[in-house]
Automatic annotation (TrEMBL):
Keywords: Isomerase. This is Chorismate mutase. Pfam families: CM_2. It comes from the Bacteria.
Length: 99
C-alpha cells in the first residue's frame, strides 16, 4: 500500500475502521441471537417439539424482506442470510434433541 495518496489512505482507513466496528457488532448480535435460540432448543427438546418451525420461518422471512426493502438492502440477500442462520439453529436444535 506504499504508493497510495495519503488522503486516499486516510479515507480508506476511516471506512475500514467503521467496517471493523460493524463486523464486531454483527458478531455480538449473532452471539446473543444464538444464546436465545439455544434456550429455545432446550425448551423444544423438553416438550418434544420439532426443531424446525416452517410457518414461523415464513413469517420471519416476509418481515425481513420488507425491512430490507425499506433499508435499501437486497431482499434476496436478507432472505439468504436468514436462511443460512436458521439452518445452523435447526442443526443445533437437532443436536440438543438427540443428546
Ligand atoms: C428458534 C426457533 O427454531 C427454529 C429457528 C428459527 C430461528 O433461528 O429464528 C426459527 C424457527 C425454527 O425453525 C423457533 O422456533 O423460534
Amino acid at each position: 500500500m506504499n504508493g497510495i495518496d495519503p488522503a486516499v489512505q486516510a479515507e480508506l482507513q476511516r471506512l475500514r475502521d467503521s467496517i471493523d466496528n460493524i463486523d464486531a457488532a454483527l458478531v455480538h448480535m449473532l452471539a446473543e441471537r444464538f444464546k436465545c435460540t439455544q434456550q429455545v432448543g432446550h425448551l423444544k427438546a423438553r416438550h418434544a417439539l420439532p426443531p424446525a418451525d416452517p410457518s414461523r420461518e415464513a413469517q420471519q422471512i416476509a418481515r425481513l424482506r420488507a425491512l430490507a426493502e425499506s433499508a435499501k438492502l437486497d431482499p434476496a440477500f436478507a432472505e439468504k442470510l436468514l436462511n443460512f442462520i436458521i439452518a445452523e439453529v435447526i442443526r443445533h436444535h437437532e443436536t440438543i434433541a438427540n443428546s
